[in-house]
């Protein structure tokens, strides 16, 4: 038999119990709307980095990094071919100009020098013998000239005597003998003059021969001098005072003409080679003051050259060092640098926020209501330095802004800090 069940009706409010918590939450939000203001995002204070706006002289600097480079650097090259017998220096060694670095050997070059030496000696001996023979011939010719002069003078004396006798009417001298005397005088005069000309030509020949022989000797001596210079070049020496940076040859290695032997740099004459971002290079001009930081000391310099080309987003800037170099300064030392662009008097500035380019207007979060909130404020930025930026408008002295990363809440005008 069926038993009729009685239906028990629940109160309507119990069916919609979940509405009560929702209403309570809404009421609480409405009640504390003044506390939360219009904040739509919450940030923990420990995650924020803030900075206050200051006023004063703002130094515009550009930071760069680079290396110290030697202003005077020279590769020492091999002038002759040879095999390395000795390597007398290592990288880091202090050397003086003319100091022996590497000794080469080349037996063939030594034999060639000896051959030229013997050729020079033989030519000098042959030239000496030829000159002695020609000088002897010249001496004989000069003796003949003297004898011819004597014969001419004797014939002329006889002719003069006969002429005087004939003039006096003395018949002891026949006309035939007188004519013969005249003919003899003419013959002796011509012979004497001929011998003089012959002697003159012999002297000219002797001088020309001496010149030609001396030219040949000079040629051989030049060859010998060149060979000697090549032999001397087997001893490779430092061409300047400095520190050895690199030695390219090893013991027993064969060196060819023009091969690099050693790299020598003058450590007392250095300059800084800096890499400046291309976006800041328009601020750099020649002569600007630069402070070089070697990690242990600072060196003052000035911009001496700006590379016209951009490589990998960087521009090379050379800095002439005007201070005395510290003891830790050496070639290839990594350094940091601050290039002083300008000083702006009595302006507002603040530590540079993240993602705040110079010469732009951007939204920065300024702390309000005793630092409980931060409200987005449009700020016009000016020049920037290494870690500071100029404020042209939008903030006042003493305002505190968030300088850490705010990209997570950029769409919110106001945030609450707890």
UniProtKB/TrEMBL annotation:
Domain called CzcB-like barrel-sandwich hybrid: residue spans: 75-266
Keyword Transmembrane attached: yes
Matches recorded under InterPro entries: BSH_CzcB-like (IPR058647), UPF0194_transport (IPR050465)
Localization per Swiss-Prot or TrEMBL: Cell envelope
Residues of the signal peptide: none
Gene3D superfamilies for the chain: 2.40.420.20, 2.40.50.100
Coiled-coil intervals, chain numbering: 210-237
GO cellular component: cell envelope
Keyword line: Coiled coil, Membrane, Transmembrane, Transmembrane helix
Residue ranges crossing the lipid bilayer per the database entry: 12-30
UniProt protein name: ABC transporter permease
